[in-house]
Structures are given as C-alpha cells and as structure tokens.
Amino acid sequence: MWRLIRRGRPSVAASSVALLAALASVAGSLWFPIQTKHLIDRFDGGGIELQQVLLVAAALVGGAAAGALSAYMLARIGYQVVAELRAALVEKLLRLPVASFDKESSGERVSRVIRDCEAISELITKQTVNLVTGVLLLAGSIVVLLLLDVPLTLTLLGSVVAAFAVMIPIAFLLDGLSRRTQDRVARISGILTHIFQEIRLVKAFTAEAQERRRSVAEIEDLKRLGLKTARVNVALEPVMSLAMTMAIIIILVYGAARVAAGEISVGTLTAFILYIFNVVNPLAQLTNFTAELQKAKGASVRIAAIFDEAEEEKKTTAQPAPHSPGGVLEFRDVSFAYAGRDTTVLNGIDLLFEPGTTTALVGASGSGKTTILSLIERFYEPSSGQILYDGRPIADYPLQQWRGGIGYVAQSAPVMPGSVRDNIAYGLSGEFTDAQVRSAAERAGALDFIERMPQGLDTVLIEQGNNLSGGQRQRIAIARMFLRDPDLLILDEATSNLDSETEHQVRLALEALMRGRTNIIVAHRLSTVIHAQRICFLEAGRISGIGNHGELLASHPYYARLVQRQFQQPVEAEPMEAG
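^ thats the sequence. predicted structure below, dont judge the formating
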C-alpha cells in the first residue's frame, strides 16, 4: 500500500504544512484544558480575568482552525495521490496484453480503478489526519495528565483501556467484512456492466427476469454484508458511549474524593474531565484507522496485483516495422493454446501471406480462424513455432509500429464515444484536415449519410454506435482504414450482418480499400471469399486444404459440400483477378 501511495507522489510541501497544522491543533487541544483549569482556579482568587478568558478562547479557536487546515491539506494530498494512482492504473491496464482481460470482467477492472482506489483515498484523506493527531494528542494528554496527578491519571487510563479491550476485537471484525464487501461490489459491477452493454440481447431474448434475478441475488448478498457491518458498527457505538460515561463517573467520584481531601483542586478535576475526550477520541480514531487500514490493504493488494502484471512486450532497439508493402508474413509450424486451457486451438499451422494478395480463412466456428488473426495482431504469443515478417520474428518489431501497419475491420465494427470525426481518425497520430477526413469517408461510401447527420462530422455517436445502422458503422470503420493506410488489411466477417444492398455498397468500398495491400479475409459466406487468390480451410485447428476456389472445389470434399449447401448448386471456379 505504501508503494502505491509513493507512486502518487505526495507533495512534500503540502505534507509539511499539514504536519505543522496538526501539531498546532494538538497543542491547542492540550493547552485548552490547562487554561480552563487556571480559569476555574481563579474563582478562589476573587474572580475571572479577561486575559484568562481570552487565552481559553484562543486555545479553543486556534486549535480548531489548525485542525481544519491540517484536515484540508491532508485531503488535498490524498485526492492528488489517488488521482495519480487512478491515472497510473488506467495507463497500466491499457498496457496489459489482451490475455490479461480474459481473467477478469471489464466491470471488475473498473471497480479496481474506482472503488479500490476510493478505499485508499478514504485512508489518506480522512484517516491519516486522525492517525497523526490521535497519536500526538494521546501521547501529549498522557504526559500532561501525569504531571497534573499520577493516581487520577492511572485511574483514567485503566478505565479507558478496559473499555477498549472489548472494542478492539469488535472493530477487527470489520476487516473481513469490508474485504468481502469490496469483492462483492466488484462482482456486481462486472455483471451490471455486461448486462447494460448487451441490453439488446437481453431484451431480444426476454431475459429481463433472468438478469433481474441474477442481479438481485448479488444485491441481496451485498445487503447481508452491509447489515453485518452495520451490526458491528452499532455494537461499537454503545461500547464507546459506555466507555466515556464510565470514565467520567469514575473520575468524578474518585476526583471528588481527592478534592474533598484537599489533594487536588476543582480546576484540576475539571481539566481531567476535559482530557477524557483527549484520550477516548484518539483511541476511537486509532481503532477506526486500523479498520480502514485493513480495508485499504485489501484494496491495495488487488491494485498492486494489476501493477505487477507483465505488460505487452516492447522492444525499443528493434528495427522499425515497415510501412510500405512488400513484406511476406509467414506462419511456421505455429501452435497455440489459451492459458489455463488444455485444448490446443492451433496445431502446426504453416501459412504464407504474400504482398498484394488476398488470403481467405474458412472453416467452422471454433476452427481457429480468429485465433490466427489475434496472433497476427500480437494479442497473444504462439505456444510454439514462429510468425515471421520478411524472415524476422514479428516479436522483434516495436509493438506500436507493428500494429500501426495493420488495419482491422471487425464484424461488429465497434464505435467509440465521440464524434464521427473522432471515430474515423481513431487511434491515428497527427492532425487530419476536414478535407482528409471527408476524402476517407467518401472513398468508403460514408460521406452521403454523414452529411445528412445533424452536425455532419461533428455528430456525437452514442454508446456502441447505436444511432448508426450496421452498414453505416462498417463504412465508418472502412473510412478509418483509408485514413490509416495499412500495409496489412484484416477483414473479420466484415459483411456478415448486412442486408444484400448494404453488403453490396460495403463490398465496393472494401474492394477499393483492398487494392495493393496484403489482405486476410475471415468469412462464413463463401460468396465473400471465392475470388481470393488463396483459400485456407481450417478444421479443428489444422489446415486441411489450401488453394483457390476451383482447386478446393475439386480436391476438398468438405469445402465442396459447403459450397453446394450455401449456393444450392455446384459453383464453377471463376477466373482470378490480379491483385
């Protein structure tokens, strides 16, 4: 946890001001009962002096003002630290490999950034000032009390310590409850994030009741934990009140007897009663700090685990990835299995993707097509074998530059929050003029519908692009590729969810985009891939056939059956177009 706090780079100057203000606040709290003692003892001397009253007021007001300044400065430090920590955590999450996000839902990761950092914020902004002032006030009060009267001090400490001996075990029950509550909040955050992201699926399958039951079950568990925490807190409050009451009664009874015997003055007894609060409150603050510390420690363990995860490999001394066509991408005896799974997804894949050609990956769902694309994008590393570009392992190329030379058009054509312009230029470095963005949109066949939007390129797209049709999202994704100008173009089921007319329009845009590039197409519709120079047929993670449409139709029975099933009749091979 302290490693995380240091990562937030707390201000030394602000920390110094907070510490000095805390010392001044403690001094005021210690001085106030002493001045009150002198004020009361003055009654025996013939009345109250104005100067003594002003000293009491100064101790009270000055201590309160210094305490407020200390609390504000520590809060400022805390919020700055947590802001830095959250920013660093977001940056770290963005640098993690895709495989890291296979372990935990996105909602749980969001909870780490928001809720767990909030627990650390609570410790720094509120509980740290209680720790600093509590320790100083407790130590100072005990010293002053011992100077005033040792027997009465020992009596006071004995009664308070006895009460806290009962309170502390109860307070520590909050530790386990708070950790379980944080884990449950992260879990329900993950569930709700997924539900709301897929709300159309939920409603399309009338699964509202099912999702409500699942969510309510988690909410009920969270409620039960909250009630347990409330019961512990409720148990602490009367114990605290009883401790205060018993301490006051004991001091009053014993102190009154000492006053009657002439051993101490009434002012001294009054000071002792005031000091009770200076002893009990810091002990309560230290108990709360301990509980919050355990809570923050649990949160920091989860956050630190993210910081300790290995980032995507970056090689700063590697040769820059080429930005012009001409490289041969080769899979050489590549096998792959996802972490934690026994099943091998790819087995001994040998493939060549030559410049200026189109290669189609065909096969049943689960045959390994998308995994090949993920390996090309370096979302994962092969379990064995090599992926080479121009004879060099692709891992030797700087990751950002490698991915910068790849264009990816996915089936869902995801849209990010922001304007149409932001989405067309998404992820690209540098500034682009309106003319460049409009040119890319026009080449993708998207300019007409963009100009019909209320603010044109500045129209804000809502979550997941739900104010666009599927074809419009695809054409914006294609416009992004025109602006990106990649060497290697990947089309992952890019037209599978479109109607015939929209598919035709998108296909025209794709044909323009594919010219002169190395293209890799994944599709279930064979009409999309029959013109590819090379078709690779995958079965259970292995290549069972490679060739053009005519060659596979003649040599691959499974491929021939798929062709006949999709077209309802045998399809003759058509001549290939160059490029």
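Residues 120 and 296 are 5 Å apart (CA to CA).
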